[in-house]
Amino acid sequence: MIPSWMQEAAARAEDRFARNGIRLTLGGEPTFVPIKPEGPEWSYSAVGPTKLAYAWKVAGLLQKKRLRGAAAFFCPGKLYPGEVNPRWAVRLLANRDGSPLFRPPAPGPSSGPQALRQFATALSKHLGVASHWVRFSDPRDPRTEVFAMPLDHDEETWTSAPWPLDRKLRTLINTEGAAGLRLPLQHFPPSLPRRALTIERTGNSAAIFFPPLLQRPFLELLAAAEAAAQKAGLSALELQGYLPLDEAARWTVLGLTADPGVLEINLPACTSWTEYAGWLETLTSCCASAGLRSWKNVPQDHPQGSGGGNHLLWGGPSIEAHPFFARPKWLAAILRFWQHHPSLAYLFTGCYVGASSQAPRPDESARDLYDIDMAYTFLEGLPEGDHRELINETLRHLQTDTTGNSHRSEISFDKFWNTSLPSGALGLIEFRAIESLPRSEWMSAIALLWHCLAAHLLDAKIPRALKPFGPALHDEYFLPQRLWEDLEEIFSALEKDGFPLERKIFQDIWKWRFPSLLVWNKGPARLTVRKALESWPLLCETPVEGGSTSRFVDTSMQRLEFSADAEFFRSYHVHVAGRPLAIRETSPGVFLAGLRFRRTNLYPALHPGIPVQLPLHITLVNMKTGRVAAEFELKSGDAIFHKLPKPGAVKPAGNPCRGRRKSDLTCDLRLD
What is the secondary structure of 67-114 as a DSSP string? Predict the structure, then answer.
């Protein structure tokens, strides 16, 4: 049930869009892991032995709950450098009008060899072509029965022709994947397009692999497959192959894809925030029934998001009605506002932030503010008209990571209008600094904040100058309290513009993201130590198994935030590892310090000779008496500090804790 305040805020945002003639769509890419994620596929690999089974289970639940009559397709996914085979995707296609797109065969007796031959004959007959089927053997599994037939569509009728292939060449390529991806198409007749229809049977499972087709012939082939399967008495039929673009805008499309460490769900483009929130609720429920969730327990640490992100995408209902192509000034206002507010990059993302993360800010990517500001100023001065190509060319070299990768950035224009990539001209703006969280309403609340900000920035007057954060960006804004204060500024701006958002749900997210490791109260005095953010450095290339190289990050450092009230600040000193830690007043009534220390030392690592700084001791000293009020210890493998029963005397262990610069709020325990 969506709370009324969320519905009201969304309605106000969409009313402002409507008054300005804007139709903004929302897409999402939430990610899920098993309750007990085991094996490389749930850590760093994209594919593995269990992930596809989970995808099919979730797909089946979605078909029952929300996408009745949908066709489920097993499709080849992206092929990434260093990976032998393309990744896979399970895609659900459903008619928007609710009519069934595909009726699978009714479950019945197992489908034997004769049923596959009958299916092939019936399929040829439905398409109106001769049965030019060629039988292939599968070197990976001799029990598999495979037939393939040249097939094409000339915009009017189906065409086929014999494939005069020598018998010794009628063998699939010896690699993983569906038979339709393993045909020896290099031996196709030169006069024919390299396009073939493939059917296969392994055990009791039958499958049909669709070649690349336009939407109308694709639908004809789908209908023919449905009719032929019923006529042949198949007990089940798996749909595989390539999907066409939705030229007629008649489908709802949802994808379940293999991504490193997670199962990624590509939501349909939603025309409203309410629709988006509904999808997240449905998806979270179906995944839970399948044994998946959007967060994970981390051994010897606090729970975290899935690790695969929950990227939010903005776009339009069509390329012709795209909201940003003719509004570069609005887009520049959004980019400026995001640069002004680090909380939008750091508060809702995963544990890994900074320049070498998956979603760095443009001012973290070795880009001068001068160039960034010049680009935004240029966009603001463009005349009326469609500027999609110029927007893309202006931004794509700035919204990147340190290596120039336009996909890995806080706000990615990789799929905006990049015509050099097959899927780069979709008109999409991707916000990548958003993580999957334990509750669907939390993820919906973040999307609502984004939605309201988009409406607010249509008219808002914001400072045009970019903020030169410099070292303070990481020194201060990796600390939870500073991020919350920044978010409060955003809430205040939205409230003044008629978009009040309730704080509690965002406070719950903040507390979950930055768990307390220590809370100490003595009368009115209070000290809280929270887990903070850290930027882990990217290391040089390291040889890995298989003869290739990999770039690792050094995750050995951890950052803590020490937050005190005024009474604690007046009454107590803090010592860490015997060294005084200076807590400073950063805003009225708020007293903070950050602390970095080395928690692990794994290979490879930066500064391998510096030892692990655990166990870590925190000692609280009463200013008036000079006596130890309490002492706490964080051991290796602990998630929180534990109070020591008999605190000892303060033992000086060196100089006061300090940062790299005198003005730093965060100290580094490695520095003397």
Answer: -TTPEEEEEE----TT-SS--EEEEEEEETTS--S--PPPP-S---HH
The rounded distance, in Å, linking the Cα atoms of 498 and 456 is 9
Per-residue pLDDT for 255 more than 70?
yes
Tell me if 179 sits within 8 A of 148, measured CB to CB.
yes
The C-alpha atoms of residue 309 and residue 311 are separated, in whole angstroms, by: 6
pLDDT at res. 109: 61
- The pLDDT confidence band at residue 654, using thresholds 50, 70 and 90, is confident
pLDDT at 108: 63
- 296: three-class secondary structure by DSSP: strand
Q: Indicate whether 128 and 268 sit together in one domain.
A: no
**b (16+ CB within 10 A) / e for 390-413:** bbbebbbebbbbeeeebbbbbbbb
3-state helix, strand, coil in the chain (%, to 5): 30, 25, 50
Q: In this structure, are 604 and 660 located in the same domain?
A: yes
Quote the pLDDT of residue 412: 95
> Do residues 585 and 606 both lie within one domain?
yes
Quick: pLDDT tens for 526-574: 999 999 999 988 888 777 665 566 678 899 999 999 999 999 999 999 9
Residue 53 tokens, joined: 């089974």
Please return the burial class of 32, using the count of CB atoms within 10 Å of its CB with bins 0-12, 13-18 and 19+: buried
pLDDT digits (tens, 9 = 90+) for 434-443: 999 999 999 9
- Residue 85 CA to residue 175 CA, distance in Å, equals 8
Q: How confident is the model at residue 35 (pLDDT cuts 50, 70, 90)?
A: very high
HEC string for 417-454: CCCCCCCCCCCCEEECCCCCCCCHHHHHHHHHHHHHHH
Compute the half-sphere exposure of residue 259: CA atoms within 13 Å on the CB side of its CA. Answer: 18
Q: What residue numbers bound the domain in which 194 lies?
A: 113-241
Sign of CA dihedral 298, 301, 302, 307: negative
What gap in Å lies between CA 291 and CA 426, rounded to an integer?
A: 33
Query: Structure pTM?
Result: 0.94
Q: In terms of C-beta density within 10 A (0-12 exposed, 13-18 middle, 19 or more buried), how is residue 353 classed?
A: buried
What is the model's pLDDT at position 366? 65
| Beta-carbon contacts of residue 186 (< 8 Å; ≥ 6 apart) | none
Q: Indicate if 318 and 428 belong to the same structural domain.
A: yes
User: What order do you get walking across the sheet with 196-202 strand by strand?
Assistant: 134-136, 145-150, 196-202, 205-210, 238-241, 71-76, 88-95, 251-259, 262-266, 31-34, 292-293
> What's the order of all strands across the beta sheet hosting 429-431?
25-29, 311-315, 429-431, 411-412
pLDDT average, residue stretch 128-156: 95
Query: What residues contact residue 311 under an 8 Å CB cut-off, 6+ apart?
Result: 28, 29, 430, 431, 432, 434
DSSP tag of 186: G
How far apart, in whole angstroms, are the C-alpha atoms of residue 200 and residue 208?
Answer: 7
In 538-635, which ranges are E strands?
Answer: 538-543, 549-553, 557-564, 572-576, 579-581, 584-587, 590-598, 616-622, 628-634
Encoded tokens for 403: 């290596």
Q: Does 296 lie in the same domain as 223?
A: no
Looking at the fold, whether 600 and 494 belong to one and the same domain comes out as: no
Asked whether 434 and 441 are in contact (CB, 8 A), the reply is: no
How many Cα atoms are found within 13 Å in the side-chain-facing hemisphere of 620? 25
Contacts of 346 (CB under 8 A, 6+ apart): 353, 433, 477, 478, 483, 533
- HSE-CB for 174 with a 13 A CA cutoff: 4
CB burial readout 209-240, b (16+ within 10 A) else e: bbbebeeebbbebbebbbebbbebbbbbbbbb
Same domain? For 309 and 229 the reply is no
